[in-house]
Amino acid sequence: xxxxxxxxxxxxxxxxxxxxxxxxxxxxxxxxxxxxxxxxxxxxxxxxxxxxxxxxxxxxxxxxxxxxxxxxxxxxxxxxxxxxxxxxxxxxxxxxxxxxxxxxxxxxxxxxxxxxxxxxxxxxxxxxxxxxxxxxxxxxxxxxxxxxxxxxxxxxxxxxxxxxxxxxxxxxxxxxxxxxxxxxxxxxxxxxxxxxxxxxxxxxxxxxxxxxxxxxxxxxxxxxxxxxxxxxxxxxxxxxxxxxxxxxxxxxxxxxxxxxxxxxxxxxxxxxxxxxxxxxxxxxxxxxxxxxxxxxxxxxxxxxxxxxxxxxxxxxxxxxxxxxxxxxxxxxxxxxxxxxxxxxxxxxxxxxxxxxxxxxxxxxxxxxxxxxxxxxxxxx
Amino acid sequence: xxxxxxxxxxxxxxxxxxxxxxxxxxxxxxxxxxxxxxxxxxxxxxxxxxxxxxxxxxxxxxxxxxxxxxxxxxxxxxxxxxxxxxxxxxxxxxxxxxxxxxxxxxxxxxxxxxxxxxxxxxxxxxxxxxxxxxxxxxxxxxxxxxxxxxxxxxxxxxxxxxxxxxxxxxxxxxxxxxxxxxxxxxxxxxxxxxxxxxxxxxxxxxxxxxxxxxxxxxxxxxxxxxxxxxxxxxxxxxxxxxxxxxxxxxxxxxxxxxxxxxxxxxxxxxxxxxxxxxxxxxxxxxxxxxxxxxxxxxxxxxxxxxxxxxxxxxxxxxxxxxxxxxxxxxxxxxxxxxxxxxxxxxxxxxxxxxxxxxxxxxxxxxxxxxxxxxxxxxxx
Lengths: 380, 380
Known about the structure:
The structure is a homodimer.
Chain A: E1 3-13, H1 21-24, E2 30-34, H2 39-42, H3 45-52, E3 57-61, H4 70-83, E4 87-92, H5 94-106, H6 115-118, E5 129-133, E6 145-150, E7 155-160, E8 168-171, H7 181-199, H8 207-225, H9 232-245, H10 259-271, H11 275-289, H12 291-304, H13 314-328, H14 336-339, H15 345-355, H16 369-379
Parallel strand pairs in A: 1-8, 2-3, 2-4, 4-5, 5-8
Antiparallel strand pairs in A: 6-7
Helix pairs in contact in A: 4-5, 7-8, 7-9, 7-11, 8-9, 10-11, 10-15, 11-12, 11-13, 11-16, 12-13, 15-16
């Protein structure tokens, strides 16, 4: 076990914490408030943000879409440059935050913004970012990753840099109160798969990381079961659990998979499938396919997360329990339901994986395009 | 649940990580290496530190004792001022790190160093600190607390400041290889009680914090059971578990107790009892005394940590399980064994608690001097 880890993002957690913005952003900063489709104007979050920025000079950029596109974000980058913005405040969920990270990095680059996805531009600096989280799911509020879509080429790809890790994040569970059920479900599933990508991997015996991951998985199961009895405590527990699922800690020093994400991203890029739902489609088939490597950890998950008894088919029963969890949330796990009757759906995905260089996925680099094809066939 | 939390200390974890010192300390810094009695010269840690500092200008201060004293630390403070030191590197366990924090803060103060304990001097700044941890126990390597003893008055007291949180900490499990068994046991018990102080408190339902705390407690139980089969993995798991026990995370937004620590400190100040052993003496009696407030959480601990079945006396059986854990490590839990035949031992402790203003201890401020007297009587 070897790693270097820190998470310096200051978390302001709890009801009423949006007011912390005021003292968290330097008084002389020129702030751009970035948000999505305007739901924050209906649930009171926008008004609280505006009130908290009363001492600051600020402007705004709205219209960041789910699966934020380079095309939209380029407009924000132009605004940042034109207005000499030096602080970005993302108010939203993972899409707004990821988009803001892209803006923060690309605004300091003279060339095309996509260069930071291709790696032609190395992100060493970025405009500082603050976050007001409205949808617990991606953990983006305190990590250093972002995923962006280029509509022109149907590509959904990510980048990582410590420079885009938010300086602070407000996690006020009240901001979730008006979320549609579908988005809450997506958040539960997204956080669940984030934990799995860092947990269902080959070696065992990292007592802290594995123990914490099991806590988060049990929490998500329990929160799923309590879905129809949502209250303040439920929202607080989901918001903190989803943050922990991808803040770097449970993955520190662990082999990590992320193949479910890489393949799932192509479903979103091709057919606009919700991110979380793309993961639910790919994951069970991938786990069955990679049993050779993952059996011990899947069995551990069966025992410690689902409370299953030992048996020869424990791994298969564990995967079925994962599918039952998705089903209990009314999340489909069939690829054909989203790809429609396109007979060439699988080949389209394989083509894109190859184009993006994702030809050796998984913690053991065993998921070649041929294996991806097997997984996708199983997922139909 | 409401809190603000971040832990910016960069952890370099794993075998061979001591070399990270070289790039973690600014090249132009004037470094003071601070350590204890010289065990690091026998186990190779000192040599690795020296090799890693080959590009730096540095000097050293040795002789920081267990339960570091103001009297010793004042000499280091004088050296820091005389040599214009601007970076401190603590190489040791909790005592060396706590002592280094005291030095780091007091070296920027013109008056008497003890002013930062009394609060007459507010610690807003400190010389930056790096750590090479050799004894996992206190979590001091990534938190903002320190406890120091003034020999002249037999006082053992602490202070907290974000300014003294280490910038980085190297956690190389190999550094523990030559530790005496007694110190390893102390580390296990110290980390155990740290978790308990943040976990066995009144409300329940903080799913992340409580779940993580239970992971750490189960880890420590298991590591205790494997004590005679110690290997690389054992050391790595203990080192990371003990860090997590007091890095602020499991306590974020939780009511916290710390009465066991406050009373235990007096045993150390009066009779030089090892810190961990002072905690083992006080804790069981305190839990029985405060059952009115702590019953629900003690029962939860019984179920989730010790795997006990429900029963009317579940709380008592849980406390007995804690005592059995201490006994399995050959740690005494009787006060009379350390205070000797002093008939006035309890009154001596009460006097000191009152002198230090510790007259309303515990998460509900219910532990008055009279209650402390009851607890100490039970602990005899």
